[in-house]
Design a protein that fits this description.
two-stranded antiparallel sheet, DNA-binding protein
Length: about 190
């Protein structure tokens, strides 16, 4: 039995017009799937499969917690996730992905493995920015970061670092060195 055999849905052998499946995605699942966004979590997925006249509608309700690195201090943090996603599946001659959420599977196989789709739905429900609440970041990392930032908000800056009350501004060090050949080329433009 393969790692993801329990995530196969037999569409061809469906007796009723709808079926319901329950999955728990745990640390072992995330370790086996080996995706870059999430390595640990506990997520409950309820999958409802409905047969329509020409296809199957798979509705995924995903709720749980994943652990991801904090963008600021790199410590793991709990992140609650919740999403509702749909996937349409129809039979065809060979496997294909058509459009955003339409999958074609070979009719002779008659089944679809939803393990990777569930992982994608979990990964897509994670916000782009994930940081600890103010004051909850790793204190050692925060102190190391504060050594490399300025504390005056008067100067030009691009990014603000929140340490839980004290506003500290990150200074972006950019040295602009111009190749002297450009200056010579600009003289040509000025002469025209």
């Amino acid at each position: 039995m393969g790692k993801f055999d329990k995530y196969k849905i037999d569409l061809k052998g469906m007796q009723a017009d709808s079926a319901k499946y329950e999955f728990v995605l745990d640390n072992l699942y995330f370790a086996h799937i080996d995706g870059p966004e999430v390595q640990k979590g506990k997520v409950n997925v309820t999958l409802t499969v409905k047969r329509t006249s020409r296809a199957f509608e798979l509705s995924f309700q995903t709720d749980g917690i994943v652990w991801v690195p904090c963008d600021r201090c790199l410590d793991e943090m709990e992140l609650p996730i919740s999403s509702s996603d749909k996937l349409m599946v129809k039979f065809g001659r060979e496997y294909a992905e058509e459009g955003d959420n339409l999958i074609v599977i070979p009719e002779e196989e008659g089944e679809i493995n939803v393990a990777w789709f569930m992982y994608e739905f979990v990964a897509l429900s994670i916000p782009m920015k994930h940081v600890h609440a103010p004051g909850k970041c790793n204190k050692a990392m925060t102190s190391k970061l504060s050594k490399h930032i300025k504390t005056s908000a008067d100067e030009d800056s691009d990014e603000v670092f929140d340490t839980g009350g004290d506003e500290i501004v990150i200074e972006e060090e950019v040295e602009e060195q111009v190749d002297p050949r450009w200056n010579e080329l600009k003289k040509i433009l000025d002469n025209n």
